[in-house]
Amino acid sequence: MEGTLQLLKKDLKMMKGWFLGGAAVIAVVGVLGAWLAYQTRVGTVSFLISFLLFIHVFYIPAYVWRSLSKEWKGTYVYWLQFPQSGWTLLAMKLVSAAISLCASYFIAYAIFYGISQIEMNSKQQLLEVVVPDAFDVRSYIEYIRSSFLSMFSLILFLSVTLGVWVLLLNISIQAVRRWLHRFSGVVMLLLFIFLFWAELSFSNTQLYRSLTEWGAFTSTSAWAIIELHIGDVLFSLLEVTVFFFAAGWLVDRKVEV
User: Fold this and answer.
1) Using CA atoms, how far apart are residues 195 and 159, in angstroms rounded to an integer?
2) What is the mean pLDDT of residues 56-81?
3) Which residues span the membrane (predicted)?
4) How far apart are the C-alpha atoms of 247 and 257, rounded to whole Å?
5) Measured between alpha carbons, how far is residue 251 from residues 26, 165, 178 in Å?
6) Is 8 exposed, middle or buried (0-12, 13-18, 19+ CB in 10 A)?
7) CA 155/CA 53 separation, integer angstroms
8) What pTM was computed for the model?
9) CA–CA dist 22, 31 (Å, integer)
10) For the chain, what is the mean pLDDT?
C-alpha cells in the first residue's frame, strides 16, 4: 500500500506543473469572463464559459499522454522498476489524472457559477441583445447549474473511457518500438483509428442496440440527453477493462527497461 501511494505521489508531483498551468489558464479566462459579464450581462459569457466544463472530457486523455511521454523521455527506467505490477503503475496514472480532473473541473464550475450568477441577476433578457431569436439560454444555464452531479459524472466517465484508449495506444507504441522503430507511432495510430471506426460501426448495428438499449436514465439527466443507457455504460466499462488489462500486460511483458 505504501508503494502504491508513493507511485501516486510521484505521478501527481510529475504533473504538478501541467495541472497548475491548466488551472491558471482557467483562472485567467474566469477573470476576463467576470469583467465581460459585468459589462454586458446578456448571457453570452456564461454560455461560452460553460464550454470550459465540456472540454474536461479530453482532460484525462491529454493528462495520461503527457504523463507517459515524460516517463519515456527520462524516468521510465525508474518507473518500470517499481515492484508493483504494470496494472498498478497504469492505475496510478489514471487515478492521478482523475484527481487532477476533479480539481480542475471544480475550479471551472465555480467560475461558471459565479459568472452565471452575475448574468442571471440581470434584468435584461439574456442574449436578446446579441441574438434576438436565440434558444432559451436562461434555461440552458439553469440546467447546468442544477445538474452538477449528473454533468460531472458523465464528463468523468467519458474522460476515463477516452483516457484508457489513449493509455493503450501509448503503451502499444512503446511495446512495438523495438520492431517498428520510428514507424511504431504511425502504425499503431492507424490501427487504433481502424478499431475506433469498427466500434462506431458496430454501435450503429441492430445487434448492439439490442444488447445495450436497456436501463434508461431519467429524462433530466445529462446521460439521457446524449441518449446513453445503462447498457451502453456497462458495455463501455467492459471494453475499457479489457483495454486496461491489455495495457498492463504489455507493460509487464513487452515494454523493455
Assistant:
1) 18
2) 87
3) 18-38, 44-65, 86-112, 148-171, 183-202, 222-251
4) 16
5) 34, 15, 14
6) middle
7) 8
8) 0.88
9) 14
10) 85
What is the C-alpha to C-alpha distance for residues 246 and 256, in angstroms, rounded to an integer? 16
Q: Which three cell numbers stand for residue 217?
A: 436514465
Return all residues near 115 (Cβ < 8 A) that are at least 6 apart: 30, 33, 34, 37, 45, 46, 49
H runs (alpha helix) in the chain? 2-14, 16-40, 44-54, 59-70, 76-80, 86-120, 137-146, 148-175, 177-180, 184-203, 206-212, 222-225, 230-253
- Would you kindly state where each structural domain of the chain is located, as residue ranges? 2-253
- pLDDT digits 0-9 by tens, 119-131: 776 555 555 544 4
**Cross-strand partners of 216:** 229
Residues 6+ apart with CB under 8 A from 64: 93, 94, 97, 163, 166, 167, 170
Amino acid at 5: L
Residue pLDDT, tens place only, 143-157: 888 888 989 999 999
